[in-house]
Design goal:
Layout: H1 2-13, H2 17-84, H3 90-110, H4 115-141, H5 149-153, H6 155-235, H7 249-322, H8 328-356, E1 365-368, H9 369-379, H10 381-387, E2 390-393, E3 398-401, H11 403-419, E4 428-436, E5 439-446, H12 478-488, E6 493-495, E7 504-510, H13 524-533
Parallel strand pairs: 2-4
Antiparallel strand pairs: 1-3, 4-5, 5-7, 6-7
Helix pairs in contact: 2-3, 2-4, 2-6, 3-4, 4-6, 7-8, 7-13, 9-11, 11-12
Length: 534
């Protein structure tokens, strides 16, 4: 016997959680289906008996009593009319005829599925027809005013005929009473059976719930709790703590996989720690390199701008002092030199500003974009007046950001919209703002010369110009700086390709402060000297 028990246990030990659940659910559903069918049958039987008792047998019994009353009214009316000849006695007779027809029809409707009771009804109707044919209708047809001689002549026959009616009615009523009593008894028995069936259903449901709960506890909950406890122990730092497999086959397999992963993590920890140390060293080197690059940018801007200022200053001084001794071509050359030096100085300043975005960590604070917009319009007032530009805007929010950078963003976008206007057409510019969840959607729309779709991405690349410097002044850094500022503040910027009448630049800004990495390590003295040099 022990030899047969082991294979069975072995087979059960290979069952997975899904298989246990399928078998358990299938068994529970089978039991519940059988119980449900039994309960439905009992309920249907109870409802059928109750309906038959309430809507057939009880109404049929009461209708027979009413039919008897209607026939008694007929007999009383006919007997009175035959003895006195007074026509008033015909009224209850005629009313009784109508009620007889009504009650007979009602009985046929109620008893059409009961052959025995229909036979009793036919016997009553036959007795009534005999009495009416021999007594009632001949007496009712006699002229009023005097007693009907048929009353006396057929008195005995009439009594015998009406007694037959009473006997038929009694038989009918007794049959209906018997069936009604039997229906009440059947209903009581069925209701008792129904109660026991539902008690059994409730007991089985409770038993199933207990079995399911215990099965889940032993097969799923306890193994998972044990696995969770082992996992928490390992997560707490005890990586040498083993995981004990238990429960169904799939949970045991899961425990084994997690334990394998634990062992692999132990092997990887040493390598990870070594890699972290190397990464820390590389990060320190990168911070030093960034600090050196930042310092170089400031020093380079100072060292480059000083010779340019000298070139520009001495060239202008040469023009003022020796202008009368030089010809027109020499003046033109001097103007070229001064303009080149000035453009180089502007380019250096723009490059310096471009390098500062995301590198120098200004304080984050609440920035009112309405004030930024007004300052931008004030700084561009000359261009606005010269071009006759009309600039409108939606209500602008306050954001947590670097105020100086948002000022550069607004100035570049609105300045470009004014600069690239159509000849002989006054610029019309609108700044829209709409909140979309955690970000704000902005757009700067103008009626200028627009941007072709094939250049929609190129315009955000540094030094990429779509026009010559003679047609439109600029260094080609403006939109690249806008992109860098927007991305630094957690947003995106793009050209709307669907806008045709001019250009529309759309961008988003996060409503929460952007994540800013470590502070600049550039010495304050070097930064101050570079700023002074600018």
């Amino acid at each position: 016997m022990s030899g047969t028990a082991k294979p069975r246990g072995g087979r059960l030990s290979t069952w997975t959680t899904r298989r246990w659940l399928r078998v358990g659910v299938a068994g529970a559903m089978t039991v519940l289906t059988v119980l449900g069918i039994t309960g439905a049958w009992v309920l249907g039987r109870t409802a059928s008996l109750s309906d038959d008792l309430v809507n057939v047998k009880s109404p049929a019994l009461s209708t027979t009593f009413r039919l008897e009353s209607a026939l008694l009214n007929q007999e009383t009316g006919i007997r009175g009319y035959g003895q006195t000849g007074a026509s008033d006695f015909l009224a209850p007779y005629q009313q009784g005829l109508k009620e007889q027809q009504t009650f007979s029809t009602r009985l046929r409707e109620l008893l059409h599925d009961d052959p025995a009771r229909m036979k009793d009804l036919a016997a009553v109707e036959a007795a009534v027809e005999t009495w009416q044919a021999r007594i009632a209708r001949p007496v009712a047809a006699a002229p009023a005013g005097s007693p009907s001689p048929l009353t006396a002549e057929r008195a005995a026959e009439g009594k015998e005929a009406f007694d037959a009616i009473r006997a038929a009615l009694l038989t009918q009523q007794e049959g209906l009473r018997t069936e009604r009593a039997r229906g009440v008894e059947d209903l009581a028995d069925t209701m008792e059976l129904r109660n026991w069936v539902f008690i059994a259903i409730a007991g089985l449901i409770v038993l199933l719930a207990v079995l399911v709960f215990e099965g889940l506890r032993r097969g799923i909950t306890t193994p998972l709790e044990r696995l969770g406890a082992d996992a928490r122990t390992i997560a707490g730092g005890d990586f040498e703590h083993p995981i004990t497999p238990m429960g169904p086959a799939d949970l045991r397999h899961l425990s084994a996989e997690i334990d394998f992963m634990r062992r692999r993590l132990v092997r990887e920890l040493a390598f990870t720690e070594e890699a972290r140390l190397r990464l820390d060293a590389q990060s320190a080197d990168l911070q030093r390199s960034n600090a050196e690059l930042e310092q170089f940018a400031y020093v380079a801007s100072h060292d480059l701008q000083e010779p340019l200022r000298k070139v520009s200053s001495f060239t202008q001084l040469l023009q003022r002092r020796y202008g009368s001794q030089l010809d027109e071509r020499a003046d033109q050359y001097i103007a070229y030199a001064v303009d080149g030096a000035n453009r180089m100085q502007v380019l250096i300043n723009d490059l310096l500003e471009f390098s500062r975005v995301g590198r120098l960590q200004d304080d984050l604070k609440s920035v009112d974009l309405e004030e930024v917009h007004e300052r931008t319009l004030s700084s561009l007032s000359v261009s606005i007046e010269e071009t006759g530009a009309t600039i409108t805007h939606d209500p602008l929010p306050s954001l947590t950001a670097v105020g100086a950078q948002l000022g550069m963003l607004w100035q570049n976008l609105i300045g470009n919209a004014i600069k690239f206007h159509r000849p002989d057409t006054a610029p019309r510019i609108h700044v829209s703002a709409e909140r979309d969840g955690d970000v704000w959607q902005f757009a700067v729309t103008d009626n200028g010369i627009g941007i072709a779709p094939e250049y929609a991405e190129k315009v955000f690349v540094i030094f990429q110009r779509l026009h010559t410097k003679d047609a439109y002044k600029g260094s080609g850094i403006g939109l690249a700086m806008c992109k860098k500022i927007v991305e630094f503040h957690g947003g995106t910027i793009a050209v709307d390709p669907d806008h045709r009448d001019g250009a529309r630049i759309t961008f988003t800004l996060a409503s929460t402060p952007p994540t800013i990495t470590g502070p600049s390590t550039m010495p304050e003295a070097t930064r101050a000297n570079a700023e002074q040099a600018r």
